[in-house]
Structure formats: structure tokens, C-alpha cells
Write a structure and sequence with these properties.
Shape: elongated
Largest sheet: 5 strands, antiparallel
Distance between the termini: 87 Å
Structural class: mainly beta
Helix content: under 10%
Low-confidence stretches: 5-19
Mean pLDDT: 90
Length: 466
Amino acid sequence: MRKTFYLIIAMLFVLAGCKESAPEPVETSFSVNAEQLNTSLRVTVNPSAAEQTYVFGIFEIEDASAIENLINEYAVKAISENRVVSGISDTTFSDLKVKSQYCIWVAQVDNGAVTFTPTHIIRKIDVAKDYYSFVSNEWVAPIAISDNGLWVVGTASEASYIFDVINEKYTFIEGVALYDITDDGVAFGMDLTLHSALIYRNDTPEYPDADSKFNESCFFSVTPDGTQAVGYVMDEESVFKAVLYKNGKFEILPSFNGPESDMGAKEAVYMIAKGISADGIIAGYFVDENYSVEMSCVWNSPVVGNASFANSSMTWNPEWMWYNMTVGRYNTYISSNGNYIASNVIDYGPDGWGETYYSYIYDVRNDKITIFNDSSLAGFRVDGVSNNGDVFYSDAILGFSSVPYIVPNGESKVMTLQEYLSKTYSYDFTDRKMEGSFISVTEDCKGFVVGNYQDDGFATSIYYVK
């Protein structure tokens, strides 16, 4: 009996050893496609084996070195939430951030766990088109584009507009002059009725100067995040002072003395802050009290602190009773990274009776000014400067240019902006023209706004290059 029992046990072990073991998982390949639709991505996942189970998803990339770890974390979470699927998946992920990069990932799942190395692709959400154009029948001209290229603001004598690029929405606003706009679409400028600095947020005006003693105030420029803005205030004695708005408070910026002349160097009574970089370097201009000439200046420079360009290639000539050259005008611009300042200079010639408009670019970080006095640039107006150090021009001192021009960084010869974009980025101008004046450029130097006069209004054209 005992012998029979042991025989039965042995046979059971033999049968158990002969039982078929579970097959090892076989790696499946996944085809992943992501199509952008405005601020959405339509993601299609197609496994090579239709019955294969898997999980997939998307996340914004903030640290590229952490992608693999994040994919594993998201995959485990998706499995725990029973989001395992099979076959072809077609899903749209909405409300993504423009100018941000996203990781679309797929992980194979067998027996409730991730097997093999997940697949992933990276996509950057960008503006949907490479060209936008519209005409403001209210005769409002463009004046600035946000650093991220998603908003354009325009202004006129009695009104302004805000253009939402993503939704292609034009908003006309009466009674305000808007001069700049943040990456979130918050515009800064002036209420034309109250003569007060204005912040225009979500269709609602805000008045930071409501309780001050200033007779007038205005914002001309704002940082991309909206934390700092600059412009001017006019005090009770009608003196214009450059101002910084930060942490909810106005700060009067230091004033400068004008250049030496037969009447000495007097403190300026008209100072304007025109632009501010993302890191808080400020550029502007002031008017010499003695002879009412304009000069550029800088505040918060990491090299020179607060300084004017009054004595940069600018000296008083006692024989002429005038300056040999004035450096800077009201059209003083600073790049959004704070590396460059540019404006016009006026050369009065060998006898002081001439008046030729040239230009300069100032390297802020190295405290170096370069004056462009090539004859090909004589009479050109400076319209802006990019983070790359490219200077933009109009072929007219006043009004719109025939076409926009550029002098790329490191060069001294002018060329049309259309020619530059065609050669540098292979931009296709087949069905569009680039006419008028350069207005503004994005932080990445790949979005350009051009304004022009038309019979039915002011035209705004926006060009995006890859």
C-alpha cells in the first residue's frame, strides 16, 4: 500500500514537470504618429501585433535627462489605473503649451507589467502656420510681438488691438495705447483718457498709477513674464522721468547729464525708458536741456551700471557751436536677452551743417559700441535689434519703409529681410509679399512682424521660420 502511494506521488511530479510553461513575451514594435492641430496633438499608435496590449501617454519635457524614468513612472501608473489597450489607438491631447516640447510614449504590457524598452517620440508645439496677415480697418498699426510669438499688439492715436495668433482672434480696444505684451497676452501701455499707465489683462484694464501723484504715466515695454515694466512718468512740474514698475511699485530711474557744450553739461529734464530685457536691463533716451538733442542711455547694465551714450564719439565743436555727432534717438531698442542696444546716430559733417543719419549697435555685455557709417546705410532708420545682434531698418526716417531691411550680426552691408529669410531659412515667399517696415521679432529670432500702409487700413503680417 505504501509502495503504491509513493508511486502515485512520483507520477504526479512527472506530470507536473511535463506541463507546458507560459511562453516568453515577444517584443512588439509600435508606430507612433503625432499630428498638431492648433494647441492639440492627435496621437495614433499602431502595434505590429494587433493583439498586443500596451499603455501610452504624453507629458511636457522639462528635463531631458529624466525622460526614461518618467516614462516608466507614467507607465506603471497607467497600468494601475487599468488604461491598458490593444489594437490601434487614436487619441487627441488638448490644451498643450505652445513653444513647449512633449514626449509621447508607448510601453508594451505583458502579464500586467511593462516588458521591453518603451518607445517614445518628441514633438514641439508650434504656431499652426508660417504666415498670418490681416488689415486693421480702424487704422491701428502693429507695434510689438510677445517673446514667444503668440501675441501681437498694435496702437494708434486713439485705439489699439491685440491679436491672438493661436486662435487668430483680433480684438479692437478704444481709448488705450498699448505698446507691448507678455507671453501670456497681458498688454501694457496707457489709458488715453486718464493719461495713466495701463495694464490690460483678460479684457479688463488695471491702473497701477491710480493713487500716485504723477500727472501722467505710460508703459512702453514689459518683460516676457510681466514682472517688470518701464516707461515714463510726468511729475507736478511737468518733468518727464524714466520709470521702472516692479513688485507693484514705481521706481524713478537715475537721470543723466547731457554732453558738454558751451553751456556746460546740465541734467536732462526729459528721460524715457523705452525697452527692458528679460533680465531687467533697461534702454532708453533723454533730451539734452541745452540744445534739445536726443541721446541713448542704459540702466542696470551688468558692466557699466547706469550710463549715457552722451560722450560716445560725441564731442562739442566750439567752432561750429554744435556737436560733431549725436548718439541715439527716440527709436532706441534693446534685445530681449539684454545683449544689444541699437538706434540711430546723426553725423553733422565736417563743417557742422550736414545731417546724415547713420546707426549704431552697442554690445551691452562687453561695453562696446559699433557705428555703422557705410554709405549704403545713410538715411536708414533703426527699427529694432534681435537677440542674435541683427539690426533691422527702414529706408525712411519717418513713416513706413518700402520693404524691411536687416544687417545681420557681424556684417556691415544691408539686405532686405525677405532676401535674408529666403537665404538663411529657405522661407517660401511664393504666395506672399514682404512690404513695409519691420516692427518686432520674437525671442528665438524666428518670428517677425512687418507693418504696412494699405488703402483700407494698416496691414499686419507675421512670418514664422523653422
